[in-house]
Amino acid sequence: MEIQSTDIGYGAHTLQVTVNDLCQDLDPLLVQRKGKLIILATENADPQALAWICRDYYGSRSFDAIPTLLHSLSQAYRDHAELEHRVLLLAVQRGLDVYMVGNSEAVVRLARYNVVRDLFDPLASHRGFRVALTEHPGSGQIPALYSTVWRVVKGDLMLLVHRSAADRISAGALSRVARQARTAGAAARSLGRTGRVDAETPLMVIRYAQISPVPEVPEPARSESEPAPVIKPRVRREGVSPVLVTGLIALVAVLVSVWATGTRLNLAELPGYLEMYFFPEPTPTAGLTPVVSEAEGSEQFLVYSPPELVTPYHGARIKGAEVALVWDWAAELGPDERFEVLLQPPAGEPEARTMTREHQHVVAFGTEGWYSWSVRIVDIADTASPVALSPRAEQVSFHWSAAEN
Question: Is the pTM of this model over 0.70?
C-alpha cells in the first residue's frame, strides 16, 4: 500500500507534523524502506524532542521496526520526562503492516466494515477484550511500553486517541463515522465532538482509502514508416431500438394477462411483473441440487476475494470412506480470521459448517448422493455471530458413493 493512499486526519488539539517536517534531509528511499513514521502527540510536545525521535528511528541501522521504535520512544522518555503524557504512541506504516509502540495512555481501535475492535489497549485485558500486545517493562523514568503489529486492508479506518476520549467514543459511533465520513479529517472532527476532546487529548484518524493503481506506461513512439492506425467512424443507429420494442411487448403481455385473469394490479408491483417476464426462475438441473444461500445483510462490506476451490471438481464422482475438500487462497489469515467450509448433504439434510485455518478439510460421508461445497473467509472475533469477510466461492457439486467391496 502506497503512502499516497493513506489519509490522515487530526483532532483539534493534536500535533500535525510529518516526517518531512521533522527530518527535512531524509532520503525518500530510506523512508520507503523503513516505513512512514506517525506520531500521536499533543500540541505542546517539544518539537526538538520529536525531531530527535525521527532522526533516531531513521538513523538506526536496524530495519526491525518494533525494537527500533522501542529504543527511540524509551530514550525520549528518559531524556524528557514530560513527554510521557505528550507523546503517547509511535506507529510505522510499511507496506500493508502497521507497527505500533506506545504507553498505557494510548488506545488504537480499528473499524473494518461493520466490526470495531481494539488493536492497542494495554488495559483491555482487564475488561475482557482479546488484544495481542507485547509488554516491555519500564525502568526508572521509562514507563512500561507495549507493542503490536497489524495488517490493514482497503477501507480500514484506524482511530489513535488518548484513553480519556476513547472511553467516550462508542463502537457504534466509530463504525458509523467510518461508513459516512469521506475523509480522515472529517472523521477526526466528528469523533472529536463525540468524545468531547479537551486541550490535552490528542486524537488522530487514519483511513486506508485504496491501493494505488499501477502507473500507466506511455505508448512507444510510432515509426514514420509504420502506417497510422485506422479509426473506424462510429455508426449511429437509425430507427427504433429493439430494446424499446421488446419492453413495450412485455408491458402489453403483462396487461393482457392481468385483464384476462381479473387480477387487480398495483402500479408499484408492475416492475416486478416485468422482471419476471424478462428473467424467469431458472429450472434446476436434475441430480445437482444447488445450495440456497441465505440473506446475508451483514456482508455488505466484504474485503477479500473468495478462495479458489481445487478438489473435488464440479461433477466429480467419488468413492471411498473420506473425501478431502481442498482450496487455495494466496493471502495470510489474520488472528481472528478463519476459512468457513460449507457442505450441503443430499436428501435435504442441514448444511454443515466448519471453521479452520488449514487449506483443506477431510469429511467422512455416510449418505450416498450429490453433495455441494463452498468456502468463504469469516471473522470470528464475536464467536456467537461470525462476520463474512469474503463472498462464498462458487459452489461445486460432486457425487459420493461407498467404496466397492
Answer: no
